[in-house]
C-alpha cells in the first residue's frame, strides 16, 4: 500500500472520535514522505554531478527539507494529544523548507537537471498540501 | 507522485552509470517509507486505546521500527559512495525491526485491533522488500 | 567529547569565512540533541508507568518534541547555503514543541514524576537556547 | 545537562526494575548523539570545501552514519518492551556505519582536513561504545 492508503486506514481505525478532515491529513502525510524521499535522492544525485561545487546550496536545502518533512509527516500523523501550536509551527516550517528547496531546484532544473525538476515539483506539492492543512489545524 | 514513482525517477536521473536492479531498490525505498508511517500511526492509535497499558510493547516496537525504517529508506536511497557493509547492516536491522513489530502487532490483530493488522501487513511487506534487496547489495 | 565540544570544533574548522556568533549556534545545537534524548527517554519512562493511560498526551508531545529537536539540531548545524527563512521557521517550531512538552511534563512532575521534571527542565533549556539564537539568524 | 547526564537520570527514574549495566547504555546513547552531530556537521564542512568533488563519498557516509546514529541512540534509549534482536541489529548497523565513515574521514584527515580528523575520532568512539554494549544486550 502506498503511504496515502496506509495513512487513511490508520486514521479510519483510530479508536477515539475524530472530527477532522481526513483528506487534508492524508494528503499532507503522503506529501511529506514523498518529499522526504525526493530531497534525499536529489541530494544524492547532486553529489554525483560533475559540477557538484555549484550544487552545494541545493544539497543543503535538500537535507534541511528532508529532515523537516520527516518530522512534519510524523507530527501530522499523530492524533492523540494533538497540539495546534506544535502542529501549526512544524507545518509552517515545512512550507518554508519546501519553498526554499523548490526555488533552488528550479534554478538547476532550468539548466537541464532533471532530478532537480522532479524534486521541485514534489516540494511544491508538499508546500501546497501543508498550506491546505494549515487552516484545518488552526494554524 | 507516490514514493515508488519518485524513487524510480530519481534513480533514472542519477547522473553516473548505475548497474543495479532498480526495481529492488525502488520497492525497498517505498516499503521503508510506507512502514515508517504505518508504525508512527499504529503507535498513535495504540496510545488512544483504552487498554493502552497492554500495548506498551507494541508502541515501543512501532517507534523502533519507524526510526529504523526512516534510516533504511534514506541509506538505500543513496547511490553515491555506496558502501555494501553499511547498507547490508541497516537493511538487516530493518528486517529485524519489521519482524519483531509484525509479530507483536499480530498478537493484537488477533484480538480485533485493526490498526495492528494493517501495520503487521506493512511490516511484513517491508521485511520482504528488504530480504529481496539484500543479495543484490552483497549483504 | 560532548555535543557542545563537537559542535564548536566543527564550526571552528568550517572552511569558509563564518561571521556568526558561534556560542549561540553551539548552545542551540547541544540543547536540541540533549532535549531529543530527554524526550525519547521520557516517552519510554511514561510507557513503563502503571498509570500510562493518564500520560498519553505526554508521550505524544515527547515524540513530537524529539522529532522536531533532531530536525532543528541538524538544520542549525549546517552553515553551507544557510537559509534564514528555513532556519527561523524550524527554530520557531522547536520553541513551540519544547514549550508544549515542558508544560505537559510540569503537570506530571508536580505529581512526583521525576523523569517529567528532568524532561521539562531540558525542554525549557532548549526553548531558551532557540529563543536566543533566533535574532542572530534574522528569525 | 549534556546527553550523558540526561540519559543517566532518565534511566535512574525508569519506573520498573532495570537489571542492566547503566554505564554501557549511557555511554552508547551519548556517543550516538555526539556522532550524529559530528557527521551532520562534517558533511556540511565537506560541502564548503573547494575540493568538494573529491569528498562526495565522505559526505554520503557522513549522512548514512548520522541517520543510523540517531536511530541507534533512540532504540538504545528505550527500555520498555526491549527486544534484543532489534537492538542488536541496529547496534551492529551503527558499528558498520561508524567504521566506514571513520575509515573514509581518516583518508581526508591525512591530507589536513581537520573536521574529518575530529569526525573520525567521534566515529571510532561511537563504534567502541556500541561494541561494548553489544554483549550486554545479547547481541
Walk me through what this model shows.
Four copies of one chain form a homotetramer. Chain A has 139 residues and is an all-alpha fold. Chain A is built from five helices and no strands. The first copy, chain A, has a single domain, classed as Substrate Binding Domain Of Dnak, Chain:A, Domain 2 (Up-down Bundle), CATH 1.20.1270.360. Chain A is elongated. The two termini of chain A are 30 Å apart. Chains in contact: A-B, A-C, A-D, B-C, B-D, C-D. Chains C and D meet through helix 1, helix 2, helix 3 and helix 5 of C and helix 1, helix 2, helix 3 and helix 5 of D.
Q: Quick gist of this model?
A:
Four copies of one chain form a homotetramer. With 139 residues, the first copy, chain A, is an all-alpha fold.
Oligomeric state of the chains in view:
homotetramer
Class from helix and strand fractions of chain A: mainly alpha
Q: How many helices of chain A in DSSP terms?
A: 5
Largest interface: C-D, 46 and 46 residues
**How many angstroms does the end-to-end distance of chain A come to?**
30 Å
Within the CATH hierarchy, at the fold level, what is the topology of chain A?
Substrate Binding Domain Of Dnak, Chain:A, Domain 2
As for the number of domains of chain A, it is 1
Largest sheet of chain A: none
Give the beta-strand count of chain A: 0
State the share of residues found in helices of chain A, binned by percent. over 70%
β content of chain A, as a range?
under 5%
How would you state the average pLDDT of chain A, rounded? 97
Amino acid at each position: 500500500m502506498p503511504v496515502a492508503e496506509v495513512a487513511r486506514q490508520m486514521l479510519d481505525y483510530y479508536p477515539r472520535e475524530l472530527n477532522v478532515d481526513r483528506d487534508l491529513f492524508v494528503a499532507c502525510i503522503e506529501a511529506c514522505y514523498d518529499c522526504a524521499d525526493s530531497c534525499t535522492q536529489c541530494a544524492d544525485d547532486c553529489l554525483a554531478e560533475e559540477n557538484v561545487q555549484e550544487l552545494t546550496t541545493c544539497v543543503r536545502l535538500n537535507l534541511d527539507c528532508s529532515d523537516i518533512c520527516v518530522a512534519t509527516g510524523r507530527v501530522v500523523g499523530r492524533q492523540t494529544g494533538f497540539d495546534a501550536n506544535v502542529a501549526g509551527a512544524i507545518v509552517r516550517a515545512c512550507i518554508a523548507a519546501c519553498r526554499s528547496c523548490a526555488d533552488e531546484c528550479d534554478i538547476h532544473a532550468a539548466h537541464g537537471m532533471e532530478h532537480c525538476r522532479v524534486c521541485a515539483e514534489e516540494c511544491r506539492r508538499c508546500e501546497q498540501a501543508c498550506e491546505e492543512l494549515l487552516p484545518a489545524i488552526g494554524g
